[in-house]
Amino acid sequence: MTRLLVTGAGGMLGQDLLAVLAPRVDLKVTAATRADLDITDAAAVRAAVAGHDLVINSAAWTDVDGAETHEEVATAVNGHGVTHLAAACAETGARLIQVSTDYVFSGDADRPYPEDAPTAPVNAYGRSKLVGEQSVTRLLPDAGYIVRTAWLYGAHGPNFVATMLRLAQQREHLDVVDDQHGQPTWSYALATRLVALADAALAGRATPGFYHGTCTGQTTWYGLARAAFALNGLDPDRIRPTTSDRFPRPAPRPAYSVLGHSRWTAAGLPAMPDWHATLTASFASSAPPWKVT
Length: 293
What we know:
CATH architecture: 3-Layer(aba) Sandwich
Mean pLDDT: 95
Radius of gyration: 19 Å
Helix content: 25-40%
CATH superfamily: NAD(P)-binding Rossmann-like Domain
Strand order of the largest sheet: 2-1-3-4-5-10
Shape: globular
Order of helices and strands: EHEHEHHEHEEHEEEHEEHEHH
Number of helices: 10
Distance between the termini: 43 Å
Strand content: 15-25%
Low-confidence stretches: none
Number of strands: 12
């Protein structure tokens, strides 16, 4: 029986991965939360990876602003922790799927970033994730899969969609930036795609390297907030557009985080659905905790 290890299993994406994998009787899944496995501990990682055929790493430091003042700590997890996982997989012959980010790009493009676009992160979080990417490509050139995602929302963790709908109960109007472009991505939809990639990798159908795991289409944070309001029966005109300079943050954000998806076709897998259709589906699924009732 194929053995699969999911790290970061207690996070938003990790919990969705476990839900997608739950019906799979052909897989023996090991779920490792942060309490179970500290990926910055090389010896612990080596012991955890032993005996597994494939690892999906969803463990990460995700505090983008916090990384600006704690870059060494963020890099210890997002960079060196991934190095430990890649080295352990190289020792045992396991495959690794590493979840990365759009923040490895500069954000100054005017068309979707292809998977082989040059990287140039503009903040500490992006730099920390890039260290992890480089470790996977160096240590697992024939067994490493790097899936960049962006603008994640889901039922099991703090996220923009949940915040907007919570604030809707507290304020009449919300000012939301309309000059950052990206692809809102439901964590459950990404989980289904990661599992499909794992299947293709184990079957030898998926070429190692970079994949972009975001929904298709594009919008702004303003557009996403309006869509979330409309789908919950709230007046979208309560959302007012503004610019990023009105909301200064410790970490600069890329202005353009739209990713291309051409690598999926080569693996025999379709690109992820349109962001708005996926957002609609997310609200229809088993009463997510952010849903307005």
